[in-house]
Amino acid sequence: MDKASKWLVVTEKPSVAGDLAKALGGFEKKGDHYESPKYYITWAVGHLLELLEPEELDPKYKRWLLQDLPILPQEFQYKPKKGQTERLNHIKSLAKKSDVSGIINACDAGREGELIFREIYDFCTIKKPFKRIWLQSMTPESIRKEFQTLKPGHDYDNLGDAARCRAESDWLIGMNATRAVTKRLKTRNTKGVWSVGRVQTPTLALIAKRELDYLKHRPEPFFNLEGRFSTPTHEYSGLWFDPKFKKSHSDDEEIINTREKEDRIFSQQKLDEILKNFNANKDHAKASETRKESKEIAPQLFDLTLLQREANRKFGMPASRTLQAAQRLYEKHKLLTYPRTDSRYLPEDYVDNVKNILKEYSAIPTEYSKACQKILKIGLLNKERVFNNKHVSDHFAIIPTGQFPSEKLDGDDARIFDLVLKRFFAAFMSHAIWAKVERITAVGEQSFRTRVQDLQEPGWREVYGLDTEEESKLPKLNEKNSEEQTSVQSESIDPIQNATKPPPRYTEAKLLSLMEHCGKSVIDEEIAEVLKDKGIGTPATRADIIENLISKEYVSRYGKALKATSKGIRLVDVLNRIPIDILSKVDLTGEIEAGLRKMEKGQEKRSDFMQNMFDFTSTIVDKARTFEYDAIYKNDPPLGACPVCKIGKVFEGFWGYKCNRAGNSKETTPDQCNFIIWKEKSQRYIDRSVIEEVLNNKIVGPFEFSNSSGTSHYEEFLTVSPIKGIIFCDEKGEPKESATGYDAVVLHEELLNETFLKMPGTVKVTEMAYLCEFGVQPTEVNVEAVKPKRKSKKTSEDTEEKKKKVTKPKKVKRLISRMPRILCGREMTLEDYKSFILTGSTPPIADFKSKKGRPFAAALHLKENGNFEFKFVSRKALLGDNELEKSKKTSKKSTNKAKVVKKSKKTENVSESV
């Protein structure tokens, strides 16, 4: 390097910039950078730039039109991310300094770190040379050593090309597929876009498949048998099992495990045979047991995904909350190392750092100080499972820094910090030793099994605890050889009635594991190998993917589990049928990753890769643009006969299951039938199996449903309704829902013979609303038979008959009026509603409240179509000056009180975060 000039060092994070300045020495911090005689050091904060949106490339893309797709930019352009312009300009001003002769890329050692630097370098619009430092260890010695062996930046051009291609291919697929699918699927009644992405859609497909498996499951009754036995020293129980049982082969072990197990009896006949055999031989029971020592290996250190899985399993914390807490512990509290890592290992030169951290924690009395002292005394165990340079990529495992909290931690921060501390100490301790006992009790031809375990040596569980796995003991059968049969006494046998359960919905912990190890499900060996270590998404983005699926209403939380919504299931289904199912498979990520790795090795050109992506995107758009809804279901068999017209068959469509005699008109004509069952009811997706059952059996269930917020869950039976398709009913098929289509139980009903709309009306009171069904019975009307005049031979009787009044039924006119029982913050009474129906309006009401909580006065007027409208009036004229002033004071007090409550909640939230 020229001694008269300086080099600008750009890091990915402020903390790394500080570490470099400390290791190299001689720096002074000046605002947002460090300066020494040889270097300027400054930093990014992750990605500072992002690709332009389509409408920023060309205003015509503001309107989402199919004819404008695909969008294939000749050049991908970047813009500063929101709030990052000042940071970028600061880096640019440093880069353009006359005393800066070149730039050093000190961003993370990996593809994304390379992209972050090259985006910044291009933004600076300079021609100065750049070099690369590849840091995998952050010890001062490693940093100083790497600064002595800087490599030319162009040595990493292949890596830079792969990084750009990854970002640009994701943009191409996401922007084009989302717009094409949205334009085809969105209707006036649906809100938001139908978002499609390379990672989020395969993740959704995993959740959707499991949800369909869950919904298709029907409980099947079975029996377990528990036997009670005794020896001279103790009593014990054993569960009956079939030693000859063989599990069926399946690609999904969890689904098989929901039914087939060796301890289940599915027929009464088999149960009776077992009981008969047991009773005939109960006086000749014999037992034998085996006791084996089992090692429970000390756990590995955390990467982000493993930390998120553990926090979700133990505390039910979403992955996003775990990441936020770990990020605070890293940035604010300085207690943890960088959390967005995919490595569970430490660099091999980090042994002394670990010892220093252990010394810090052993010196100050804490619940872990004794364990730390013990580790230091014995020495670090399991080094080969902790220190390995080959498994350290951009970052190493999450460990404590050795610092202590400057303030007391609470909430998520305390829980996550404690998890990392325990895992760090446990990783260097001895294995836990268990004594596992299996006792088999034979009664005639029947076998009963008892399993227990006893912790012999706690090892790493000294700091970790037993978790949910309880220790239990079982006295020995005899003091000699427990494997020999010993006579025992049969006390009793009890059948336990159970039913199979559906395969469990995925928790975030399970989903994160599937995203990480999704390569196992891929048939292609090359793609499977590519995905073996990476999976889909990255540790840093997987939490955002899950939250994005929830915000797009594809997935909802169901307690600790994740549940695919009807929208999510329909998206995956239609992508499979178009077919562009590659968008919902992890194979796409594997294929792209394989191409990127070839590019990194110089085996594939950037231009060739992007041309393949352009072609792929065009194919996706073309298929999405040209598919016909009717065609994608044409090969599906009918689900049953139409229950309304009795002639047609019910077939599946995108939005529901309808009679094949349906027409486009809303009015029913003799040659068509408008019967339809929608695919969603009370937050449950109505799958094909439910339709087949309800059409064949008329009454089915009970099935699980929930309210709109997903906070309340209940079970209901279903039956067919000509108007609503399917409705809730009791076990006998008696409807629980009004025939008008409102999902409510009628609490009160009365007839009004004459109403404002000049027809009788039946008022009904439900839990949520007042309803009135208006209607008239068929009446006689005068009709003149009008025919062209012509000469004819008619008798006087014919003429008289012609003049007679004839009757013809008039179509029944039906209207439904509905008014919520709580309307604009005011409780409406039954008398209010009856007066409204009889007179056509209510008196002016002064105590309505707007969405913003402001009072207003209005009368309600009944419209001819059964709906109502507000007719606003002056509150002052209605209440008078005195009453209006009182009302304002009351309203002001309540508003101030609400502000105080809101402020106190804010204070609580601040204290919690601290």
UniProtKB/TrEMBL annotation:
Domain Toprim: 6-139
GO molecular function, one term: DNA binding
CDD domains listed in its UniProt record: TOP1Ac, TOPRIM_TopoIA_TopoIII
Basic residues composition bias: residue spans: 889-905
Residues annotated as domain Topo IA-type catalytic: 156-621
GO terms under cellular component: cytoplasmic replication fork
Residue numbers spanned by region Disordered: 471-503, 785-809, 883-914
Record field: compositional bias (Basic and acidic residues): 471-483, 794-803
Top enzyme category: isomerase
Catalysis performed (reactions): ATP-independent breakage of single-stranded DNA, followed by passage and rejoining
GO biological process: DNA recombination; DNA repair; DNA topological change
Pfam families: Topoisom_bac (PF01131), Toprim (PF01751), Toprim_Crpt (PF13342)
Residue ranges with Polar residues bias: 484-500
Keyword terms: DNA-binding, Isomerase, Magnesium, Metal-binding, Topoisomerase
Listed EC numbers: 5.6.2.1
PROSITE patterns referenced in this protein's UniProt entry, alphabetically: TOPO_IA_1 (PS00396), TOPO_IA_2 (PS52039), TOPRIM (PS50880)
PANTHER family membership: DNA TOPOISOMERASE 3-ALPHA, PROKARYOTIC DNA TOPOISOMERASE
Entry similarity comment: Belongs to the type IA topoisomerase family.
Protein name: DNA topoisomerase
Record organism: Fluviispira multicolorata
